[in-house]
Amino acid sequence: MAQTMDGPDARTRAGDLTGFEAVMRQHERLVLVTALRLLGNIEDAKDVSQEVFLRLYRNLGKVEAEKNYPAWLYRVTVNLCHDVGRKRRPSVAVEDVLELVSGAADPQQTLTGAERQRVLQMSLRALSEKERAALVLRDLEGLSTEEVARALGSSEATVRSQISKARVKMRDFVERYFRRRV
């Protein structure tokens, strides 16, 4: 049962569970990491990931018409993260920081890394949902501007503008944060 990077094969689109599980395994990291970066909370990210794949299963016939299958997954992930973000305030999970601290040999280096991670999460939360989504997909997920525009349903010019504004806001946030700490 061959799967392509573009999407599920005909048997999977017809409801074959084995093929669908293969599609899930192939793309679960993409969905989970994107959701985690957008939400900053692993439990919320897992919930979103599960919902993305439920929606994928329900819409397998429609996905066939999509030209860029990963873009469909990104779009649904971003939309669900927006929904969760409206209901809950994102936070940096304590478990994530503890995991960083416990796995390193140099506590000072670990704390510095953990603080950087925390400041990154805080600066991401300071962005609008659209800016955050564009920045995460472009800079953290490595999509091209064209792919981000497709995933978000906007123009490339809009995406470039959102990313530029987001980078400036994040830089300003980080500078203010570390100025206060000195």
For CATH, the homologous superfamily of the largest domain is named as RNA polymerase sigma factor, region 2, helix turn helix motif
Secondary structure tally, helices: 10
Low-pLDDT ranges: 1-6, 90-104
CATH class of the largest domain: Mainly Alpha
Largest sheet: none
Net shape: elongated
Cα gyration radius (Å): 18 Å
What is the third-level CATH name, the topology of the largest domain? Rna Polymerase Sigma Factor, Chain: A
Question: Mean pLDDT, as a whole number?
Answer: 78
What are the secondary-structure elements, in order, as H or E?
A: HHHHHHHHHH
Using DSSP, what is the number of strands? 0
Question: Which terms summarize this structure?
Answer:
182 residues, mainly alpha, Rna Polymerase Sigma Factor, Chain: A, Arc Repressor Mutant, subunit A
Short recap of the structure:
The protein has 10 helices and no strands.
Write the SSE topology.
Blueprint: H1 10-13, H2 17-39, H3 42-58, H4 60-63, H5 69-87, H6 94-102, H7 107-125, H8 129-140, H9 145-152, H10 156-181
Helix pairs in contact: 2-3, 2-5, 3-5, 5-9, 7-10, 8-9, 8-10, 9-10
Question: How would you describe this protein?
Answer:
The chain has 182 residues and is an all-alpha fold. The protein has 3 domains: 78 residues, Rna Polymerase Sigma Factor, Chain: A (Orthogonal Bundle); 34 residues, no CATH class; 57 residues, Arc Repressor Mutant, subunit A (Orthogonal Bundle), CATH 1.10.10. The longest helix has 26 residues. The protein starts with 9 loop residues before the first helix and ends with a helix. The N terminus is likely disordered.
